[in-house]
Design a protein that fits this description.
Blueprint (H helix, E strand, L loop, with lengths): L2 H22 L5 H4 L15 H29 L1
Helix pairs in contact: 1-3
Length: about 80
């Protein structure tokens, strides 16, 4: 895999990661996004689509970090 392909992969992964993170905060008020409480609700279990978004965020984050490290290794060799 060359450097240009890795750059494109990182852009795609970063874009997907941003979209997934924004979808997680959908419906939450601005105070909740900055650490405020949501009307006394202290804990909420994740179900269905929320759980899928959580797992997608973790997987995309790991893939992004891995591609970044791989990009650094390729750049150092070339």
């Amino acid at each position: 895999m060359n450097s240009n392909q890795l750059d494109i992969l990182q852009i795609v992964l970063a874009s997907l990661l941003i979209i997934v993170i924004i979808l997680q905060n959908r419906g939450a008020g601005l105070s909740v996004a900055f650490g405020g409480s949501s009307g006394g609700e202290s804990y909420r279990s994740r179900r269905g689509f929320d759980k899928l978004l959580l797992y997608a965020t973790i997987i995309l984050g790991v893939l992004f970090v891995t591609s970044t490290i791989l990009s650094l290794v390729v750049a150092k060799q070339g």
